[in-house]
Amino acid sequence: MRVLMLNTHDIAGGAARATFRLREALLRGGVDARMLVSYRMSDVNTVIALSDGIFGKALRVIRAEFDRLPVRKYRRTMNGNWGPFSPARVRNRKLVRAINAISPDIVHLCWICGGMIAVEDLAEIKAPIVWRLPDMWAFTGGCHYAADLELTDGNVGGNGAGDCGNDDIGGRNESGLNCDSGVMCDKYVGGCYRCGVLGSNRDRDLSYRVFERKRRAFAKIPGMTVIGVSKWLAGCAERSALFGDKKVVCLPNPVDTNVFKPVDKHVSRLLWNLPNDKKLILFGAAWAASTPYKGYDLLLESLKKISSVNVECVVFGANEPKNKPDLPYKIRYVGHLGDDVSLASLYGACDVMVIPSRREAFGQTASESLSCGTPVVAFGVGGLPDIVDHELNGYLARPFDTGDLAKGIDWILGNDDYEKLSENARAKTVREFDYGVVAGQYIDVYRKVLG
Fold first, then answer.
1. Cβ(282)–Cβ(316) below 8 Å
2. What is the DSSP letter of 351?
3. What is the DSSP pairing of strand 168-169 with strand 172-173?
4. Do the Cβ atoms of 362 and 305 come closer than 8 Å?
5. Which residues partner with 396 through β-bridges?
6. pLDDT per residue as tens digits for the range 373-431
7. 423: number of CA atoms within 13 Å, CB side?
8. pTM to 2 decimal places
9. In Å, what is the CA distance from 158 to each residue of 77, 162, 190, 233, 403?
10. 351 half-sphere exposure, CB direction, 13 A CA radius
11. Which residue has the higher pLDDT, 380 or 182?
């Protein structure tokens, strides 16, 4: 079976790394899996870059900038309030020809924005399409995560935003949607307009035009199978106007449990020059300060409320800022980590991983941390309830109750049965997210697509 996986990048960004890992998992499972990318940073022979050289690199930059042009007239752009907005309007027939020339059995789409391909091009791909969703973009009018109505100007409305359709158990919603506050825009259920990410108050704005282009393009791909990486994301896709008639399944991102595994805490702390006499709270901060859905503001609020003493905070994915947050304990910044082994040793060195996200399609850092035996505290949103089992391998706080998040941190750090939490964490990832387990599930889906 030959599978060609499309992603804009090969290892830059969470979606790229997840696709890169899935490629490796499929290879181990006997599948001829390759990645076709616009930007290649790795040197593995199963990753193909469409255009190399100076001309190819320049063309990629031009395509990406041209694709963003319509967004620039809106006051919230790529680094704005709710992250990127991708029109995917630049045609790339060269890419389509390359895909069809390779003639794979399955074309597996993932994160394909940044000028890689236009939505209209997808209908020209001859092989069956399986689209693994890394975020909400595929079924929205261009945003990658729906805006929070309480954090916008209030002009974006919704079609019953936040209606999850599932029971809210103990204030922690198993579906991941925030039923209590009902703040998430869900215009993707009927059709996008007045986009909160764009800061638009017009009905026929860019989000409306992108949504209608997708509606026309996807109607030409009747056999497309959609994969949500969490129950929440798969549920959103099923409710959407664009994928309501498609086959939607839920499969997680894989974790290499041979790399992300428990290590001796004292040894790992020695490697990272971290103190042995402190309780260490870990947080991943890449892009967090400038992206509201990552919940950095909620984290800082929560850390001021914890009652645990003798603690320090460890931050990866960012260097030490000029103006550090005002917290009553030390914060250590370890910068950007370039390899999984270093990241695994850092997870193992810490006592708890905190993920304060308002939106999280899956929660890759959560599964990585649990695989290393480090419990996770997070809000019960998005894909995180699929990973964190409340008070079994971590703590799911009520969205977006910073007091409850602080309570969860204290509960982990002061837990008398911490070793049992760690054992449960490791067992969950080996059972549900290991390479072999997830690859087998994807192979089953591919076989059904091929009949």
1. yes
2. S
3. antiparallel
4. no
5. 378
6. 999 999 999 999 999 999 999 999 999 999 999 999 999 999 999 999 999 999 999 99
7. 4
8. 0.90
9. 21, 9, 10, 18, 28
10. 23
11. 380
Residue written as token pair 């919704």: 158
Provide the pLDDT for residue 82.
60
Residue-wise pLDDT for 97-131, tens only, equals: 999 999 999 999 999 999 999 999 999 999 999 99
Per the structure, the count of domains in the chain is 2
Residue position matching structure tokens 């992300």: 260
Based on the domain organization, do 213 and 269 belong to the same domain?
A: no
* CB contact at 8 A, 272 and 382: no
Cα–Cα dist 2/175, whole Å? 34
Query: Which CATH number characterizes residue 228's domain?
Result: 3.40.50.2000
Answer whether residue 313 shows pLDDT above 50.
yes
The domain in which residue 354 lies consists of 265-432
Rounded CA-CA distance 305/325 in Å is 14
Cα angle: 242, vertex 245, 248; to 5 degrees: 90
Average of per-residue pLDDT across 228-238: 97
Q: Give a yes or no: residue 259 inside a domain.
A: no
Task: Say whether both 245 and 275 belong to one domain.
Answer: no
Q: Treating both helix axes as pointing N-terminal to C-terminal, what angle do 14-28 and 435-450 enclose, rounded to 10 degrees? A: 80
